[in-house]
Amino acid sequence: MAEKIVDVTLAAITNVGATRVSPMGFIQVRTVRAVDDEQDFQRETLYSRERGEPLHPSGAQRLEPGNSLTYNVMRRLTVRHFGTESPGQLNQMLILAPDLTQDFVELGTVHTRVYFGCSRLKIRFGEIEGFQTVSCSHNAFLGDQECKFRADYTVNLVSSSG
């Protein structure tokens, strides 16, 4: 069996659109079965925000166009690879799994829309090497209103065995 210990960090969120963003929900990093990404082995939260909570520990409620916020939230995970799978020995990969929404106000009514774009970014066992940066673009729409941001992550291989 081969094993890799990795540190995954949500480095920053950058508003790449023309309107303010204020995503609610969560972003998780998981180790999952390589052939069935619904089967979790480890799950860690990199970002979590509910309605009414600040967007950032600084107290910011929203992110203006062109601006970014640094998070540097790091979680350590272990990813395993057994070669040929057998009961209890299932090959794994990393997955970045956001579940985010944006509130839009239109004519005094709040509408919640889901962010789409980078819904489940997979990083296979063999792709985990050294230090790498990964970016995901997220978009949410209501009519002609559009919210866009990019989340930047780092994946750092801490140790490898096998």
Write the layout of secondary structure elements.
Blueprint: E1 2-15, E2 24-33, E3 36-49, E4 68-81, E5 92-106, E6 109-114, E7 116-117, E8 121-123, E9 131-142, E10 145-161
Antiparallel strand pairs: 1-4, 1-10, 2-3, 2-5, 5-6, 5-8, 7-9, 9-10
Brief summary of the model shown:
This protein is mainly beta and 162 residues long. Helices cover 0% and strands 66% of the residues.
Protein described:
This protein is an all-beta fold and 162 residues long. The chain has one domain (2-161): Immunoglobulin-like (Sandwich). The protein is 0% helix and 66% strand. It is built from no helices and ten strands. The chain has strands at residues 2-15, 24-33, 36-49, 68-81, 92-106, 109-114, 116-117, 121-123, 131-142, 145-161. The strands form two sheets. Strands 4-1-10-9-7 form a five-stranded antiparallel sheet, with no helix packed on it. It is elongated. The N and C termini lie close together (6 Å).
